Amino acid sequence: MAKVYVFDHPLIQHKLTYIREKQTGTKEFRELVDEVATLMAFEITRDMPLEEIEIDTPVSRTKSNVLSGKKIGIIPILRAGIGMVDGILKLIPAAKVGHIGLYRDPKTLKPVEYYVKLPSDVEERDFIVVDPMLATGGSAIEAINSLKTRGGKNIKFMCLIAAPEGVELLKEAHPDVDIYIAALDEKLNEKGYIVPGLGDAGDRLFGTK
Ligand code: PRP
Ligand code: URA
After folding, report:
1. Per-domain residue ranges for the chain?
2. Which parts of the sequence bind 5-phospho-alpha-D-ribose 1-diphosphate (predicted)?
3. For 114-123, what is the mean pLDDT?
4. Is the full-model pTM beyond 0.90?
């Protein structure tokens, strides 16, 4: 069964408060999302495998650890997932980035896929699918379906804010995908927005309405 991790690190929680705050403008919103993505990437990579190699320091020969696992692919769900990519790349600069474009139909709230471009060596990588919001769960479920259909395995899902409804559906649809979130909010409202949430992540990130 999928595990759900809520990152309660004080820096993440502090920055998330200002991300939520409606007075926060586009520039600051973008910067904060970027910073939180870096902090979350630090936490999410905790279980990366290591191997010991021999090196020479200026003083002596020694054994020391380097990463040994598969290479990483980061998959932002367009649009808002883009805001988290640079923050993750600061810690995993060699990761390749694929894109899955989905928007929620405003009436049905069902995801509509419009773009998919993945790294060519999809079967060789471990993936982190990123999106600031997990609301009904439809977009995350569909993006992960899309990635799996093209050969993606070993997938983690990372978001800033999740609604309990979305977490449950994602766990059910993809029991092999662990979920990493900065905050688990109260509920969805009648328009499918997370309460209290942060509003529309894409609009706040890109200054659209
Ligand atoms: C937002 C958000 C997620 C999705 C979450 O995107 O970035 O992708 O909604 O909702 P769900 O869990 O109910 O599917 P949106 O559809 O607004 O598209 P955008 O990023 O292009 O603005
Ligand atoms: N998408 C968003 O951007 N915000 C929400 O609260 C729900 C879906």
Report:
1. 2-46+69-204
2. 79, 104, 131-139, 200
3. 97
4. yes
* CB of 134 sitting under 6 A from ligand 1: yes
For range 157-169, the mean pLDDT: 98
Q: Has 56 been annotated as catalytic?
A: no
Mind listing the pLDDT tens digit for each residue in 30-68? Answer: 999 999 999 999 999 999 999 999 999 999 999 999 999
Q: Does the CA dihedral 153-47-74-130 come out positive or negative?
A: positive
Assess if CATH 3.30.2400.10 describes domain 2-46+69-204. Answer: no
Rounded to an integer, what distance in angstroms lies between the CA atom of residue 20 and that of residue 205?
12
Ligand nearest to the CA of 143: 1
